Amino acid sequence: MPATIVVGTQWGDEGKGKFTDLVAKEMSLVVRYQGGHNAGHTIVVDGERFALQLVPSGVLYDHITPVIGNGVVVDPRVLIAEMEMLIDKGVDCGRLLLSGNAHLIFPYHQTLDALHERSLGDAKLGTTKRGIGPAYADKAMRIGLRVQDMLDPKIFRQKLEGALGHANAMITSVYGGEPVDFDEIANAYLDEYLPRLRPHIGDAIGAVHEALDAEQHVLLEGAQATFLDVDYGTYPFVTSSNPTAGGAGTGAGIGPRDISRVIGVTKAYLTRVGFGPFPTELFDDVGDHLVDVGKEFGTNTGRRRRTGWFDAVMGRYATRVNSLSELALTKLDILDDLDTLKVCVAYEHEGKRLENMPYHQSVLHNVTPVYEELPGWKTDISEITERADLPPEASAYIAFLEQQVGVPINLVGVGPGRRQFLHFAA
């Protein structure tokens, strides 16, 4: 049975957790394939909120094996705390499988992250300072430590000594910081974290392929989103991995022929956290309204998100680079009170109309959005569960987005709750 991918199509915070959870009920495995605890998603079940950072959404279903894949970078302290939170809320974490090939985040990664960001001054990137980038950098430099290394204390200490020597040289010589202590790290990871995680460490790639061979449903869940992809996003204001659909294969250990469905998740408007270009950004009362009504503050950081109108140019690009088969639209209800809605259908730059994303970053920083206006519906849609009951204006807005982006919108979210959605497919 081929796998399904759920991927964000904007700058993250699209509500992937809700729709991953919705699709997950049909699955046997849900695999998180990249990122770290810098990305959070929230699921609301019977009024109770579950803020997850590392554990895949499928953990809330008893029949699912949640898998943290090899493409993820893991802070054991954070993972253990998240598991304990779930257990306290009555969620069984015994089925969680942690890939032995996933790389570890260490305190020195977080120190380097913060020092580097501070050194950039006005050119800072807006990193969460969780150590994600430095951990991926160590992976690329081949000095990173993987989860499996904890299973061999001698090897772990040898590798840690080399990696920490490199990190402390950077911390002290380049940034003038204080060195990180070897024994504190080794003792915490081997004596405190390993006993808690050992039962969960295993062969994630084997588990995924066993499920596929048995014709079971497998869901691949990404963190962040298309425009935060290190290759395809608004570089350098991006994450350090590949959240796009292509990253799912390398992050979970499968090939293209194992994938049949790619669901893109998109908000009915647009948000961004941190720095970087944002052509449709709003600086008026509408922007403030979207923040207030949409509760647009980061799950992890609490940072206020920047808001703007839906950008179909970005949508078309996300469709291309992810090979989307369909879209799930979230937070349509946040637009309930607006008289008029705008959709960016193209950019203008130096007198030229651009239908597709410019490849040159300097152009993107200087484009002017070209808008189409549509009427609002001025109706509370949060309790609607059938397409036929949507106001005509809401249906027209969804249909317009479908036409602009080029793929069908099959699911529409009308509220934060697990059951607040409707099927829009004809």
SSE inventory with pairings:
Blueprint: E1 3-8, H1 16-24, E2 29-32, E3 41-45, E4 48-52, E5 65-68, E6 73-74, H2 76-88, E7 97-99, E8 103-104, H3 107-119, H4 132-141, H5 153-174, H6 182-197, E9 201-202, H7 204-213, E10 218-221, H8 245-252, E11 259-267, E12 270-272, H9 285-294, E13 306-308, E14 310-311, H10 312-322, E15 326-330, E16 340-349, E17 352-354, H11 361-364, E18 368-375, H12 392-405, E19 409-413, E20 421-423
Parallel strand pairs: 1-10, 1-11, 2-5, 2-10, 5-7, 6-8, 7-9, 11-15, 14-16, 15-19
Antiparallel strand pairs: 3-4, 12-13, 16-17, 16-18, 19-20
How would you describe the overall organization of this protein?
This protein is an alpha/beta fold. It is 33% helix and 21% strand. The chain has 12 helices and 20 strands. The protein has helices at residues 16-24, 76-88, 107-119, 132-141, 153-174, 182-197, 204-213, 245-252, 285-294, 312-322, 361-364, 392-405, and strands at residues 3-8, 29-32, 41-45, 48-52, 65-68, 73-74, 97-99, 103-104, 201-202, 218-221, 259-267, 270-272, 306-308, 310-311, 326-330, 340-349, 352-354, 368-375, 409-413, 421-423. The strands form 5 sheets. The protein has a 10-stranded mixed sheet with strand order 9-7-5-2-10-1-11-15-19-20, sandwiched between helices. The model has no long low-confidence stretch (mean pLDDT 92).
Main attributes of the structure:
426 residues; alpha/beta; 21% strand; globular
Brief characterization of the structure:
This protein has helices spanning 16-24, 76-88, 107-119, 132-141, 153-174, 182-197, 204-213, 245-252, 285-294, 312-322, 361-364, 392-405, and strands at 3-8, 29-32, 41-45, 48-52, 65-68, 73-74, 97-99, 103-104, 201-202, 218-221, 259-267, 270-272, 306-308, 310-311, 326-330, 340-349, 352-354, 368-375, 409-413, 421-423. With 426 residues, the protein is an alpha/beta fold.
